[in-house]
């Protein structure tokens, strides 16, 4: 399934769209369709909402893929957002980043 985040289309007005809204949209979409073994894929800014949604979808999530969405080495998503990091069982951001970078 493919879904554009609200405000993500060409010419969309991004005012009023928050990160929490985008993550919540992904959670509601996944839960309303009773999806399991979900792999969330986010490019660029979408890496943030998929990471936020991942923490709320642990029982349904098979993985996340961040394409051109990783913070610089030594930085974290949470750090860029100015919030404390959240541990998600089974998801190890440092290992994901290394695997993505190694794959080219």
Notes on the structure:
- By secondary structure, this protein is an alpha+beta fold.
- The chain has one domain.
- It is 37% helix and 12% strand.
- The protein has four helices and two strands.
- It has a two-stranded parallel ribbon.
- Strand 1, helix 2 and strand 2 form a beta-alpha-beta unit.
- Helix 1 crosses helix 2.
- It is globular, with a radius of gyration of 14 Å.
- The model has no long low-confidence stretch (mean pLDDT 77).
Secondary-structure map:
Layout: H1 19-32, E1 38-43, H2 47-54, E2 61-67, H3 77-81, H4 93-103
Parallel strand pairs: 1-2
Helix pairs in contact: 1-2
Domain module count: 1
Contiguous uncertain segments of 5+ residues: none
Helix and strand element order? HEHEHH
Give the tally of β-strands.
Answer: 2
Gyration radius from CA atoms, angstroms = 14 Å
Mean pLDDT: 77
Number of helices: 4
Distance from first to last alpha carbon? 25 Å
Helix proportion range:
25-40%
Short description:
This protein is α+β, with helices and mostly antiparallel strands. The protein contains 4 helices and 2 strands.
